[in-house]
Amino acid sequence: MSSSLPLLRHYIDGEFVASAKRFANVSPVDGRMLGEVCEADGDTVNRAVAAARAAQAGAWGRTSAGERADALLRIAAGIERRFEEFVAAEVGDTGRSVKQARSLDIARGVQNFRTFAELVRQAGGEFYEMRAADGNDVFSYTVRKPHGVVAVISPWNLPLLLLTWKVAPALACGNSVVAKPSEETPASASLLAEVIHEAGLPAGAFNLVHGFGPDSAGEFLTRHPDVDAITFTGESRTGEAIMRVAAAGVREVSFELGGKNAAVVFADADFDKAVAGVLRSSFTNSGQVCLCSERVYVERPTFERFVAALKAGAEKLKIGYPDEDDVDMGPLISRAHRDKVLDYFALARAEGATVVTGGGVPRFGDARDDGAYVQPTIWTGLDDGARCVREEVFGPVCHVAPFDSEEEVVRRVNDSEYGLCAALWTRDLKRAHALSRRFRVGMVWVNTWFLRDLRTPFGGVGLSGIGREGGRHSLDFYSELTTVCVNP
Ligand code: NAD
Description:
Elements (H helix, E strand, L loop, with lengths): L6 E2 L1 E3 L2 E3 L4 E5 L6 E6 L3 H16 L7 H17 L1 H12 L3 H25 L4 E5 L5 E10 L2 E5 L5 H14 L3 E5 L6 H12 L7 E3 L8 H7 L5 E5 L2 H11 L5 E5 L4 E5 L5 H13 L9 E7 H17 L18 H16 L3 E4 L19 E4 L6 H4 L6 E7 L2 H9 L6 E5 L3 H10 L4 E4 L18 E2 L4 H7 L1 E8 L2
Parallel strand pairs: 1-5, 8-9, 8-11, 9-10, 11-12, 13-14, 13-18, 14-17, 16-17, 18-19
Antiparallel strand pairs: 2-3, 4-5, 6-7, 7-21, 12-20, 15-16
Helix pairs in contact: 2-4, 2-6, 3-4, 3-6, 4-5, 9-10
């Protein structure tokens, strides 16, 4: 590899440090090498955790909530100052459109720090009075304290957005953080370390280690006995592995895991809005959002028309280079992930799907043929028991099925081991309220999708996760509450 390519290093105890083992960072657009990344071994992870622990005993551990809120605002301003560098880093690693990186990924990174700066400044405790047997008026109140050292493990699909979603509240609550971003997307995390350094946080408050999961940085970090809490976003199977490890020492976990989400379209829905909504919810970020709809249920009178309109919309999506203004879909994250998605395309055929559109690899006749692209794909005709209807594909694909009644669609939506979210398209709000309560999911969108007020709880049930983050729910996960009872 050329030495002119960048080398991404770890950030430990306020310094950028290299380690001997390296891995390649490859563009999913055309297979080009973008640079090398240091892979943390056990010793490197030990140093990061030790630095985080020492920061708790040092300056960072003595900060007030107000001081930490100011630090978060400096980080937000730092990301904004280097906004286009973050965009380039995210686009390089993921191949997504520049348009999306600007409007969603990096913008939300800034917003995450601003939101938790504001929330932690306002976070109060609880206060109760009672009369004790001795006649005294006793009062009890709560004090919010950090856990200590929090491990943050994040995935590749929305790299900066999902990393900062956890780093911001963890720091806001006074924890020291050791973060490990996905091996597929190390670049924006490294820039974040630079920004946090520039924002003047005490050494050890934030640390970053690069590497893989099993038998690498991820596992070394989650196994480390001096990590007090683990927050993880990624696949459900990885969540299970981390939970087993977290049992030693009874460490706290928060898991945001996979989904096999349903979109439900009633015949009374605004047809065009519903088609546009399902196109977004199935194909945004090439289907690589945990909240994407891979199961679409359409009320029978409108089914044929809906499938035809969705097909027309999918076929108009422009697959292209990240810097094209009108590009709708980029590549998948890697050739390896593309192979997994293509295996599902083959499985769907074997399971008897009708391929309404897509189902293959687009040919460009240029460098993108070495990238990781697939076509937006729509299936119909699968049984509810088919693996392609039950397992998360995590690509630009949905299965569309007709339904005849509310009872039937509730049963089918809930017939899943996952339970992250559902999207409901109907003009009948009475029905929307009633069904929203019955779906076994963490979030329901009615006539919209992906719209998030960051103060609301976020998370899933079943294989989709444990716990809720967002707003005060994040503050609760990232802190310990101590109750003080005073008999004056
Ligand atoms: P993944 O589980 O393969 O990897 C996620 C992170 O965990 C990476 O940093 C990886 O290196 C690390 N890791 C892997 N094995 C580990 C182990 N044994 N110990 C410690 N760390 C380990 O997930 P991914 O492929 O990066 O992300 C896609 C998945 O994430 C999808 O299932 C998607 O639905 C899910 N996701 C969920 C949410 C949510 O909020 N619910 C959001 C985004 C993505």
